[in-house]
Design goal:
- The protein is about 40% helix and about 20% strand.
- The longest helix has about 45 residues, at about 210-250.
- It has helices at about 1-25, 40-45, 85, 135, 210-250, 255-294; strands at about 50-55, 65, 70, 75-80, 100-105, 115, 115-125, 130, 140, 150-155, 160, 165-170, 185-195.
- It folds into 2 domains: about 25-200, no CATH class; about 205-240.
- Strands 1, 2, 3, 5 and 10 form a 5-stranded antiparallel sheet that branches. It has a 4-stranded antiparallel sheet with strand order 4-13-7-8.
- By secondary structure, the chain is of the alpha+beta class.
């Protein structure tokens, strides 16, 4: 009984996890927005998606790039040049990094989170030093930022809520120490943001509608197979009934059921005969005993 309860609990937990994973599954952008010359609204929704890079030093003065649109392959190629005066307004060689990154905007809100793949994320400093941003390249899901859109923050220090102590924006290890004076004096931030990592636009992976159609087709095929199997079963049952009749008539059949049935019939008949004989014997013995007493 205990083992049954354990297995039932495990099954319930597995089902719960499956539902949670299904509910949290990320969306392919192409399933909700894609290039379509015959659908003006859909085309506009897709090509309105784009990005802007941004930068702030430790004085938190905001700077941003021009608009970078998405291409027909679902990619946004970012290259943002951060001049030395942006990092150090006094040009005293005391430049600092507060926060820099990219914000991807105008993806349909009801589709979050989205599947995403980021490649070649790096920062090349003014002196040619290249810093590969591995933690950015590891991002696979575009979640909606409280400030709007999907935002990639590259900062040397956590942003912490003073009241709750909650980390609102986490620091990245690749830029640790860049908040110090003179540690950051400009350069080029670049990366490729792929919003079609599963190849839906290229036809490498089926869109959701296609998946639904495939499921419907599979169900139709299953129903056809079930009907065939049911018909075959009915035919087999009918044939089995005919065979049993022939076997009983000719007494030459080799069916297991028929043979077993015959054996059971003989056994039951034998038991009944023995019971009758025993009763007769007891009755006879009673008559004999009666005669002797007389």
């Amino acid at each position: 009984m205990k083992m049954r309860k354990i297995f039932a609990g495990m099954a319930a937990a597995a089902l719960s996890m499956t539902m949670i994973m299904s509910a949290a599954a990320a969306t392919d952008l192409a399933t909700v927005a894609h290039p379509d010359e015959n659908d003006e609204a859909m085309n506009k929704t897709y090509y309105s998606v784009g990005a802007m890079a941004f930068f702030m030093n430790q004085t938190w003065q905001w700077n941003q790039s021009e608009w970078i649109g998405i291409n027909e392959e679902g990619k946004i190629n970012v290259e943002f040049s951060i001049g030395a005066p942006m990092a150090d307004t006094k040009l005293e060689g005391k430049g600092t990094l507060g926060d820099m990154g990219v914000m991807v905007l105008n993806m349909p809100k009801d589709g979050y989170p989205y599947n995403v793949k980021i490649t070649d994320a790096k920062f090349v400093a003014e002196d040619g030093t290249e810093t590969v941003l591995d933690s950015v390249n590891a991002i696979t899901e575009a979640t909606e930022d409280p400030e709007g859109g999907f935002r990639i923050h590259i900062r040397p220090q956590d942003e912490v809520d003073e009241k709750t102590g909650e980390v609102k924006k986490a620091a990245r290890p690749e830029v640790a120490g860049w908040e110090e004076e003179g540690a950051f004096n400009g350069g080029v931030l670049s990366m490729t943001i792929d919003l079609d990592p599963n190849g839906v636009l290229a036809g490498e992976a089926p869109a959701e509608d296609s998946k639904d159609d495939e499921k419907k087709d599979d169900k139709k095929e299953d129903k056809k197979e079930d009907k065939k199997e049911d018909k075959k079963t009915d035919d087999d049952t009918k044939n089995a009934g005919d065979t049993t009749t022939d076997t009983n008539t000719t007494s030459t059949g080799s069916g297991t059921t028929t043979t077993t049935g015959a054996a059971q019939t003989n056994t039951q008949t034998g038991v009944a005969s023995n019971a009758i004989l025993a009763a007769m014997a007891m009755a006879a013995a009673g008559v004999v005993a009666s005669k002797k007493r007389k």
